[in-house]
Amino acid sequence: MSLRQFISARKILRSLNFLKENVFLKWKEVADLFGLQEDVFENPLHKKLEKPVTVILIGAGHRGSIYAEYAFANPDQMKIAAVADINIKRKNNIKRRHKIPETCTFSHWQEIFNQPKFADAVIISTPDNLHTAPCLAALDAGYDVLLEKPIAPTEEECRQILKKVQSGNNIVGICHVLRYSPYFRELKEILDAGIIGNIISIQHMEPIEQVHMSHSYVRGKWRNSKTATPILLAKSSHDTDIIRWLVNSPVKDVHCFGNLKWFTNRNAPEGSTERCTDGCRVESSCPYSALQIYLRDKKRLYVFDMPEEKYKWDDFILEKLKSTDYGRCVYRMDNDQPDHLTVNMLFENGVTAAFSMEAHVSYEGRRTRIMGSKGDIVGNMESFILTDFKTRKQTSWKMKTDAHGGGDQRLVKDWLQAVAQRDKKLLSSSIDVSIESHLMAFAAERSRLNRTIEEVSI
Ligand SMILES: NC(=O)c1ccc[n+]([C@@H]2O[C@H](COP(=O)([O-])OP(=O)(O)OC[C@H]3O[C@@H](n4cnc5c(N)ncnc54)[C@H](O)[C@@H]3O)[C@@H](O)[C@H]2O)c1
After folding, report:
1. Which residues have C-beta within 8 Å of that of residue 84, sequence separation ≥ 6?
2. 264 vs 131: CA distance, rounded Å
């Protein structure tokens, strides 16, 4: 770095006035000046691993493949030693990509635990109702675990897993990936450094975006709270977790209102049909047309296990729209997940938080307003503005990476470090802390159904 570059970098950093007090940001200064990667300062406890952590992937679907990809990009840190999936195509994709021998591929998760332990850890990314059994089996067999959220579909099962983890030495991480996004990390550092004084209250919104809602929670795998898990757990446990993390105090009481207002039979337009492919008369004007979303726009196709040859795609998608739930009319499903809800929370330190989950919006990306005793913050996941009450000075922060900010990959990285160094403190989302978000979500769902204020006891 030239002297000129050095001076101008310092100048820019010095103009970020409120950041001066923050110890992490001094690390950041150093890293920026020397052109180091962000991760170098994000966790100075990270060490170079002597050998890659060997991992068995249980559930090679959408999420599992994302986590496994970390091994492909970082073979010095992680090796996918085996894979289990009942879907042969997905299993074989992972087998090929990670050069896994045939003897280390399994159809059912149980087959893994029929033999002696043969890797360091497992990633469990099976459907919601298939987390508890493989997780308990993995713990019994002595594996460290990275478990997709929700931990389990019931409070009882969550507590059962926690109890087992607490009685042993296994490292268990939960995939609360928002904790690893640069936006929330930056907010957390600012709050912990006391830059806006004491937190007084938080408003937090989770805009799901209407097509995403229709795809996952009306037509898709999480549309019914009884066969999957309540949306408060399936989707909003990320938010209860983030709010709890930022407030830095256990929650005391929660209260929730919410219902399914739009995606119901009574709103089915005249002329609509069971499937969008059945000659629906309103298909061309419907914002939820499956023909538009999947066939014409080619969006969210990862659920279909697409053929590699692109020329086959249109026929393939059309066949899927005729035979799977993704082609069904959004007003004629067996969905019961609320499309709007609000949760009020009171924390032990007196902070209040108001959370709302909204499906009828055209955008994604959490919205956050944090009110403090010395200043406030207004953010939208890509940027935020901090205002100091005394000086009225405003400081802005903007994200340099993608919207999720590589949260998935950072989570895997921290988990591998925790496993390799046998230190769960290296994990931001260990099960001991993540469980609270689930207890908050279960309490909020009870409140919504029973019209009560629910106490949360850990
Ligand atoms: N952390 C997040 O942000 C986030 C986001 C989306 C989904 N999720 C959660 O991740 C989990 C997986 O979701 P997904 O979207 O990847 O689902 P998916 O359907 O794409 O993947 C699940 C995989 O598990 C496999 N499977 C089913 N039964 C099995 C068995 N007996 N043995 C081995 N494999 C089996 C399925 O064939 C499938 O490939 C869910 O619990 C979901 O709620 C988390």
Report:
1. 56, 57, 58, 59, 60, 91, 105, 106, 107, 108, 109, 111, 112
2. 30
Distance of CA 404 to the CA centre of its chain: 9
From 170, 196, 217, the end of a domain falls on 170
Would you state the pLDDT for residue 29?
A: 54
Cα(237) to centroid of ligand 1, in Å? 17
Last residue of some domain: 135, 170, 205? 170
- What are the tokens at 369? 């307003």
Mutate to test the pocket of ligand 1, among 69, 83, 86 (most ligand atoms within 8 A of CB): 86
Tell whether ligand 1 has an atom less than 6 A from the beta carbon of residue 177: yes
Do 340 and 205 lie in a common domain? Answer: yes
Q: What is the mean pLDDT of residues 368-383?
A: 97
Which atom, in ligand 1's list, is nearest to the CA of 90? 39
Q: Quote the domain boundaries for residue 97.
A: 53-170
89 lines ligand 1 (CB under 6 A): no
Instruction: Give 441 Cα–ligand 1 centroid separation in angstroms.
Output: 20
Which residue's alpha carbon is nearest to atom 15 within ligand 1?
Answer: 62
| Residue 422 lies inside a defined structural domain of this protein | no
Q: Report the distance separating Cα 353 and Cα 357, nearest Å.
A: 13
- At 61-92, the pLDDT tens digits run 999 999 999 999 999 999 999 999 999 999 99
Closest atom of ligand 1 to CA, residue 65: 16
Helix (H) or strand (E) holding 375: strand 375-379
In degrees, to the nearest 5, what angle opens at C-alpha 372 toward C-alphas 370 and 377?
Answer: 40
pTM of the model: 0.90
Residues 86 and 151 in one domain: yes
Which residue, judged by its Cα, is nearest atom 6 of ligand 1? 63
Domains identified in the chain, total number = 4
> Which residues are paired to 454 by β-bridges?
254
How remote is the CA of residue 62 from the centroid of ligand 1, in Å?
7
Average of pLDDT values for 96-103? Answer: 97
